[in-house]
Amino acid sequence: MAQLKRILGIDPGSRKTGFGIVESGRYSPTYVVSGVIRVEKFSGAQRLKNIFESVCQLIDQYQPDVMAVEKVFVYKNPKSAIILGQARGVILCAAAIKNVDIMEYTPTQIKSTIVGKGHASKDQVQYMVQNLLKLTDTPQEDAADALACALCHDRYMSLGIDPELISKGNKF
């Protein structure tokens, strides 16, 4: 029997960071937990500290083998990109300190893998995540995005695609 792996998916945000954990290695991935780290009531460095500590707590509690993180995509606002980049930085730092492998996926990769089209809507992602994981309720948007990221990583692994090639931007 294949060894079970825990995948922690993260949808970074400066106000709300989604997380979702799936277990992989059997016939299909199974849901473990998901939620949202909410830091909108804090300012600046305190937000980053809370995101960092929350991700560290998730890692300590659930012991994931790998973290799949959505890459930053910013269309117009450079200030938003910088703030989001800071949030991603503390998330990646938490994984590095806890010795959890990190894989990164673009939003297009994630949506293509989970929904079948790279520009799928949030509703479509939520619907597919709910169905793929056989959840009774629709996950909240940020949690669904994080679970989709974890499921994307699971899919690439089940196909035997080298994660290092994925992180370097190769298309398959």
TrEMBL record:
Predominant location: cytoplasm
Cofactor(s) recorded in Swiss-Prot or TrEMBL: Mg(2+)
InterPro entries the UniProt entry points to: RNaseH-like_sf (IPR012337), RNaseH_sf (IPR036397), X-over_junc_endoDNase_Mg_BS (IPR020563), X-over_junc_endoDNase_RuvC (IPR002176)
EC code(s) of this entry: 3.1.21.10
Residues the record lists as binding Mg(2+) 1: 11, 142
Localization per Swiss-Prot or TrEMBL: Cytoplasm
Superkingdom of origin: Bacteria
Cofactor note: Binds 2 Mg(2+) ion per subunit.
Record carries keyword Hydrolase: yes
Keyword vocabulary terms for this entry: Cytoplasm, DNA damage, DNA recombination, DNA repair, DNA-binding, Endonuclease, Hydrolase, Magnesium, Metal-binding, Nuclease
Matching Pfam families: RuvC
Gene3D superfamilies linked: Ribonuclease H-like superfamily/Ribonuclease H
Annotated residues for binding of Mg(2+) 2: 70
Coiled-coil stretches noted in the UniProt entry, renumbered to this chain: none
Enzyme class: hydrolase
Annotated catalysed reactions: Endonucleolytic cleavage at a junction such as a reciprocal single-stranded crossover between two homologous DNA duplexes (Holliday junction)
Catalytic center residues: 11, 70, 142
Family statement drawn from the similarity comment of this UniProt entry: Belongs to the RuvC family.
Function as written in the Swiss-Prot or TrEMBL entry: The RuvA-RuvB-RuvC complex processes Holliday junction (HJ) DNA during genetic recombination and DNA repair. Endonuclease that resolves HJ intermediates. Cleaves cruciform DNA by making single-stranded nicks across the HJ at symmetrical positions within the homologous arms, yielding a 5'-phosphate and a 3'-hydroxyl group; requires a central core of homology in the junction. The consensus cleavage sequence is 5'-(A/T)TT(C/G)-3'. Cleavage occurs on the 3'-side of the TT dinucleotide at the point of strand exchange.
Subunit structure: Homodimer which binds Holliday junction (HJ) DNA. The HJ becomes 2-fold symmetrical on binding to RuvC with unstacked arms; it has a different conformation from HJ DNA in complex with RuvA. In the full resolvosome a probable DNA-RuvA(4)-RuvB(12)-RuvC(2) complex forms which resolves the HJ.
HAMAP family: RuvC
This protein's name: Crossover junction endodeoxyribonuclease RuvC
